[in-house]
Amino acid sequence: MIRITVFKKNKKQICGFQVEGHAEYGPYGQDIVCSAVTALVFNAINSIEALTTEPIEYEYNPEGGRIICRFLNAYQFDIGQEAKLLIESMLLGLSHIQNDYGEKYINIIDEEVELC
To answer: Which residues are known catalytic residues?
Structure first.
């Protein structure tokens, strides 16, 4: 299963997110759920880097199926509207995948954090 954790401060301020695991919906290289999730997540990261001034840091481990993305100024400020819109768009797409294929393959949760 792919687990997507959205880190939030005060239940609304997005600090970052983590994606880990494999959907195992299909054979390696043919798993459409993994492919869709990967495309949405990397598009959001690349778009934030290319289209906004929001400083981010991310790590990718393909073997473990793990991506972590942090907003570097979130400890001090709320993230900018452009970055927020891109993350919300990513989460909308991911929630549609979850609704279409089920929580057996993808699960999205919010995790409250005290510090970003």
So the answer is: 22, 34
